[in-house]
Amino acid sequence: MVNISELLDIEYPIIQGAMAWIADCHLAAAVSNGGGLGIIAGGGADGQWLRNQIREARKMTDKPFGVNIMLLSPFVEEQMDVVCEEKVKVVTTGAGNPGKYIPRLKENGIIVIPVVPSVAFAQRVERAGADAVIAEGQEAGGHIGEITTMALVPQVVDAVKIPVIAAGGIADGRGICAAYMLGAKGIQVGTRFVVASECRVAQAYKEAIIKAKDTDTVATGRSTGHPVRVLKNRLSREVLSLEKRNGDQKEIERLCTGSLRNAVVEGDMEWGSLMSGQIAGLIDKEQPAAEIIREMFKEAREIYEDRNTICRTGSSIHGDGKKPL
Ligand code: TUI
Fold it and tell me: Domain span at residue 191?
């Protein structure tokens, strides 16, 4: 089985989540310099923006980084041209089927890692030539599938031969250990990196994540077939209420158009779309990306070592003290 750190040439098997408008060259370079794989989110931007971001990131880091292509974007073709021309090391994809693009990405020597919301989809992209998959549970922020991380990851692990990276609901060392217990070979983290010092979102957005409780996110857009997890605010309440009443789709569209930009750039906490995962309740401070990564893996290592100690001293579920796990 391929080792994710070796495949991606990184120190820690952690990929930064691709968050449109949020994950730019500054955040991606900070995560890569911290030993993870930084990702520039193409989002709904055009090819020229993406090319500039890739070139800026290369000035800020000599470590590997990747680009995410969001397949609902009208600029997918342009973005595909750019990642091939710029010979980006890794491409992750989201919100759709990357199958028809995989052969060209592979011809250009690019490592392809699609986000998958189900077993069938994971098998489909494996057949199409993906190098690994990110199995993302519905705890994640932004565009999501239906299945939870806990249920999705082990089922995908059993169904494919390529390595599986777990995503959705992971923000500390316990999350890393849990993902590995489910058979994942790496993790993707989004929400905790939104509050990284190097992440240039409006300060009010970071504060909203830091303040959030476990129950403060909700998935809107289920009626459109494109559910999106966000922090609760006036926008989410209005959209949900319209959806419940089978309200005007045009009105929903009007409310949502530009709402992510309004949250990230303008800091509009009322009518902005504050994409966030359910794990926001666990996140309590802003800190540099490298520190986030070090802290998470230190915690994971301690849990792992502690677990072995418990089993050796006999105070474990085995009881007899003779059978370490
Ligand atoms: O892509 C994401 N998260 C995102 S993209 C985004 S920008 C956006 N804004 C408004 C509406 C839609 C997008 C914000 N957050 N995560 C990866 C992800 N991909 N999660 C779920 C999926 C997914 C869903 C269905 C991947 C493939 C898929 O396939 C359906 C099919 O059969 O084609």
Answer: 11-200
